[in-house]
Design brief:
2 helices, 45% helix, elongated
């Protein structure tokens, strides 16, 4: 609980979060991740241009729980 309070004090605002489940995705993840990141960055740049924003914070969280294929 103290850790979460400390993180919230120092963390920047996150405007966009993408959660990617990665259970047994060893074969697909290496190809999918760079494409996904490029698409998201392109969309965020477009949004910044259209809305005149200078800063947009995002996070991509890849979640893996007990994959059997060394994901």
């Amino acid at each position: 609980e103290d850790y979460l309070r400390e993180v919230s004090k120092t963390s920047k605002r996150v405007d966009f979060s993408l959660l990617i489940p990665a259970y047994n995705e060893k074969k697909r993840l290496p190809d999918m991740l760079p494409v996904t990141i490029n698409v998201i960055i392109s969309l965020l740049i477009l949004k910044c241009i259209v809305l005149g924003e200078k800063d947009y914070n995002y996070e991509i969280i890849v979640v893996n729980d007990a994959s059997k294929d060394n994901t």
